[in-house]
Specification:
The complex is a heterodimer of chains A (230) and B (273). With 230 residues, chain A is an alpha+beta fold. Among the domains of chain A are: 57 residues, no CATH class; 76 residues, Sandwich (Immunoglobulin-like), CATH 2.60.40.1930. In chain A, 34% of the residues lie in helices and 19% in strands. In chain A, the strands form two sheets. In chain A, strands 4-3-6-7 form a four-stranded antiparallel beta sheet, with no helix packed on it. In chain A, strand 6 and strand 7 form a beta hairpin. The longest helix of chain A has 33 residues. Chain A is elongated, with a radius of gyration of 36 Å. Chain B has one domain: Immunoglobulin-like (Sandwich). In chain B, strands 2, 5, 6, 9, 10, 11, 15, 16, 18, 19 and 20 form an eleven-stranded mixed beta sheet that branches. In chain B, strands 1, 3, 4, 7 and 8 form a five-stranded antiparallel beta sheet that branches. In chain B, strands 12, 13, 14 and 17 form a four-stranded antiparallel beta sheet that branches. The chains are: A alpha+beta (230), B mainly beta (273). Chains A and B meet through strand 1, strand 7 and helix 3 of A and strand 2, strand 3, strand 7 and strand 8 of B.
Chain lengths: 230, 273
């Protein structure tokens, strides 16, 4: 706040040369106006500063790693966002049994490369990016990159239930994202006119007692009004 | 007998209304909504013209175009499309391996379809996203279609019950007061169940900025079709007919998972558990 007031003071001083002067020789009214003017850019700066937080937080909360063969090497890339790479993060290359084969450190572009081990099968790459940030990626052994091809029909069925990405297997009784049939039996009626819920739609005992209470109350009000008329 | 006759004619009168309750949707349904496992990176895309909720098909002629956009570059997938049949209807499919992190936007532009009952042409520009290996940047950018829904909510991270917001663009500008029809797709060999036919398709309207909001009640694929007209006309049987432009977007809503216990920490040496 001090810098814009002081910087702007000489420019505005001539307009307020006859007024009361405050500290540093600036007229008080002019200083107040300048302070008000200075608030706008300061507020804008503060706003921009605050705006930058969600981006920083969003990118800082998730880290990712991807690996691809590159000639006789395998190169990994680790990032928080497209513009924010993991710099100086530890990357571990493990086999399917979890044995460490090699480790490295990411460069300024988030890259860490390794010599491709021969006959190691699936490889797991783990990036440790500080503050508990950890991500892993499994590079399937060469020639096993894809699951067996599915038929169109099967794939359509699959499309209704994509496998959960890195979801814990024991997390739920139902697989992630699996849309269950809304009916318990396969044969849905036309437009699936749903049967009434179990127990029926009729009034419960509570409803009946409540309704009777209303009737008694209204009768009481009526009697009260009639007695007043007399 | 008189009553039976009356009931029969009443039923007959109801039938056209029942038919009108379901909406046509262009469909682009990927076999994966998100790819994090390299073994599942071979994604199959299914293209249909369908009534999704009731899972009733119509023929889809070979689209005018089918592309995938990644990082600003378009790849033509039209030559890779294979014709197939589902429910005896013409459908199309292809596969695309997602070989690098990024957001893959699949876009189908169908050939105009003439709907006799509505006496108009229908063109549904249909879009679906698949994000791969943790990179979905660019999800809020328009592709540049004649009409499209641009997400305001990150499309690759939605739970059932979440609100989804999108902005409808028509010729690149926000489309206010536009109907957005919404249907759930229950998956192959299934059909949705609704209390009555009016609830098969839900509708929301866009506000003055072309923005609409919807909360999906359950997991699965949800289709959003923003319908508008811009005065475009096409000939049919010697007459100029209006064209219904549809901006269709398919979004996957995930089921919210139950929590699981924290993993046990290894006991530190010298410390009692």
């Amino acid at each position: 706040m001090r810098i814009p007031v002081r910087a702007a003071a000489p420019r505005s001083r001539s307009a307020f040369s006859g007024g009361r002067r405050g500290a540093r020789g600036i007229p008080v009214r002019a200083a107040r106006r300048l302070a008000r003017q200075a608030r706008a850019p300061a507020a804008a700066l503060l706003f921009l500063f605050l705006l930058s937080f969600p981006t920083a937080k969003a990118s800082a909360h998730a880290v990712f790693i991807y690996a691809r063969p590159n000639g006789e090497r395998i190169c990994t890339e680790s990032w928080f966002s497209r513009k924010n790479k993991v710099k100086g993060g530890e990357v571990r290359m493990e086999n399917a049994r979890g044995e460490l084969l090699a480790s490295g450190v990411t460069d300024a572009a988030g890259i860490a490369c390794f010599s491709a081990p021969v006959g190691a099968g699936d490889l797991r790459f783990i990036v440790l990016a500080g503050q508990g940030h950890r991500a892993e990626f499994t590079l399937p052994a060469l020639g096993q990159e894809a699951v067996p091809a599915t038929s169109v029909e099967a794939a359509v069925s699959e499309a209704s239930a994509p496998a959960p990405a890195a979801a814990p297997a024991s997390a739920s009784s139902a697989p992630a994202g699996t849309p269950r049939s809304s009916g318990s039996s396969g044969a849905a009626p036309a437009y699936g006119v749903a049967p009434p819920p179990a127990g029926g739609d009729g009034p419960s005992l509570r409803d009946i007692i409540g309704g009777a209470g209303w009737l008694v109350g209204l009768a009481g009000l009526g009697a009260f009004a009639a007695s007043r008329r007399k | 007998m008189q009553r039976l006759r009356t009931a029969f004619f009443a039923l007959l009168l109801c039938l056209p209304a029942a038919g009108a309750a379901e909406a046509h949707f262009g469909m682009v349904i990927p076999s994966e909504s998100t790819v994090m496992d390299a073994r599942r990176a071979e994604v199959t895309l299914h293209l249909k013209f369908w009534h999704p909720f009731l899972n009733e098909g119509m023929d889809l002629e070979k689209p005018a175009s089918f592309i995938v956009r990644k990082g600003g570059a378009d790849e033509d997938l039209l030559p890779t499309l294979k014709e197939g049949r589902e429910q005896g209807r013409k459908v199309w499919s292809t596969t695309r391996r997602l070989d690098a992190p990024g957001l893959y936007t699949f876009v189908m532009e169908p050939k105009p379809y003439f709907e006799k009952e509505e006496d108009c042409w229908i063109v549904h520009y249909t879009k679906a996203y698949v994000d791969a290996f943790g990179d979905d940047e660019g999800w809020s950018s328009p592709v540049g279609l004649k009409t499209e829904i641009v997400p305001l909510t990150r499309p690759g991270a939605l739970y059932a019950g979440n609100v989804f917001q999108g902005r409808v663009l028509l010729n690149g500008k926000p489309a206010p007061d536009t109907d957005v029809e919404i249907e759930w797709y229950p998956g192959k060999d299934k059909r949705g169940r609704a209390p009555y036919e009016g609830m098969i398709t839900q509708t929301v309207k866009t506000d003055e900025n072309g923005v609409f909001t919807y909360a999906a009640p359950r997991a699965g694929w949800w289709g959003f079709a923003a319908l508008s007209e811009d005065g475009t006309r096409l000939p049919f049987a010697g007459e100029e007919k209006p064209v219904e432009l549809g901006a269709v977007l398919w979004i996957w809503f995930h089921e919210f998972l139950n929590p699981e216990p924290l993993p046990r920490r290894a006991a530190q040496p010298g410390k009692q558990p």
